[in-house]
Amino acid sequence: MIDSVKRKSEQNKVTAIAWRFYVVLAVIVLIYLGLMARAAYIQVVEPDMLKKQGDLRSLRTLANTVQRGSIVDRNGDQLAISVPVETVWADPKMIMQNNALSMTEHWQALADVLGQDVDQLTRRISKNPKKRFVYVERKVSPAMANYIHELKIPGVFLRKESKRFYPAGEISAHVVGVTDVDDKGIEGIERVYDELLTGVGGQKRFRKDAKGRKIEILSVEESRPPQDLTLSIDQRIQALAYRELKGAVAAFKARSGSVVVTNVHTGEILAMVNNPSYNPNNLANTATHRLRNRAITDVFEPGSTMKPLTVLTALEFGAAEPDTVIDTSPGWMRLGGRRVSDPRNRGELSLTDILVTSSNMGTTKLALSVPKEFLLDKFFEMGFAEDTGTGLIGESPGMLSDRSRWSKFELATLSWGHGLAISPAQLARFYSTVANGGIKRPLSILKTDKIPEGERVLSKHYTAEVLDMLEHVVNEKVSNAKVDGYRVGGKTGTTIKAVAGGYGNDYVGTFAGIAPLSRPELAVVVMINEPGGDLYHGGEIAAPVFSRVMKGALQLLNIAPDATTSAALSDADSEKQVATDSAVIKGQSNV
Fold this sequence. Notes:
InterPro entries: Beta-lactam/transpept (IPR050515), Beta-lactam/transpept-like (IPR012338), FtsI_transpept (IPR037532), PBP_dimer (IPR005311), PBP_dimer_sf (IPR036138), PCN-bd_Tpept (IPR001460)
Subcellular location: Cell inner membrane; Membrane
Strand content: 15-25%
Catalytic activity: Preferential cleavage: (Ac)2-L-Lys-D-Ala-|-D-Ala. Also transpeptidation of peptidyl-alanyl moieties that are N-acyl substituents of D-alanine
GO molecular function: penicillin binding; peptidoglycan glycosyltransferase activity; serine-type D-Ala-D-Ala carboxypeptidase activity
Distance between the termini: 157 Å
Shape: elongated
Structural class: alpha+beta
EC number: 3.4.16.4
Radius of gyration: 39 Å
């Protein structure tokens, strides 16, 4: 009995041991199966997560930033440069971990040097305590950066950046433009050529160990340096033109004004200024309208500055010759019930007299003497419905209708510069075309080493005839435009500004001219918008500005005077001069 009980106890004990063994074995198998399943999940289903975690701990990228390229004028004078500055930033998480906000005196000093309110500054830091990056102040001066570094506030750091500086200030602001706080071009040349000026920074990707040592270089991307830009602008002429324009706008209480100076042979813009302008080094509280480059964006009816084109059109078609006389009597006519007239009956006028007296009757008869299509084609060929080729942002193509039906009155008004609207830059290109013998070239804001081929749109012979006529305009009618020592030709324009439904009470005074006429080099266009005084004619307000700008530009470029061979000399003096020149040339050739 005792033995059976003992055997039964031993059997139960063995059974319990076996049961426990199988339980432990099952647990071990389940653990291994779980580990295998987890490993399979990590390695097969979601391996990227661990790689990402590992990369966050060991992978680093070292960036090599490049400064923005410089912009210089044609002589190498700097118009836009990048200067080294530093940006103040904070790590809120580190600040909170180090209880740095308790350093109240240090934060007050930081706020004072940055011109900020200390309470607002600390609130920005503590608003999101887990954040790792907050801008405190962008692009501070080196002196301020050094002071902030000496404060030694835990979690406040400095980062090297660059800031754009414009030595020419408001003088060249509309051409050069500006960048935003991130050095991205937003106006002018800075915006048009932003990619070239910016370049591409390089970077090196490497892996480090737990002690911060580089153990593997993964990739190296070389930086692409930015390009410097050389503009066609001559800063000396630019400064001269801006000074004269600013003085005229103030003197005549005008709303605005523009001046464009071009090289008639290359199409290069030597000066393009507007007033009002702005300070590109400080855009705070700058009105939006001041940023507009009015020389290319604003269009106006050019008025009588278009009359030389009407004369050229008649000459080109063969409806008139340089010695043609037009009878403008009785000084007025009706076209389709509308009246065309001169201030008085001027009777018979030569083509030169038509330009000198600015006769509406004369240009009307010339315009109506050629086919409508030929007249309109000439206006389109001058580029009055297209941009000038500068590539600048916001350039207007002007307004010239290409409709098929034009009344005789509309053609008449077109002949004296109404019914179309163009920019000062477009007007400058037209006068450059006349000056260079009839070849239309695109205007360039960049310095060119090779003269563009261009397109012949006018006869060289007839443009020379019209240049002589424009000289008579200056000598006999617009003495304000004369330049001592040089032969000058040009034409005034005075128009009433168009408003919705007709014309208002505001004027635009313009003068466009060329010099020296013996060998034309420069074309200058001056536009004064909405003068507020009693003087508003182009010959009164724009011609004097033209004279001073042209004189200064010719002298700065060392262009020799040519007035000794002008038509102002008597016939005898002219013959004597020609004989003298011939003798000199003959003597030089003999030598």
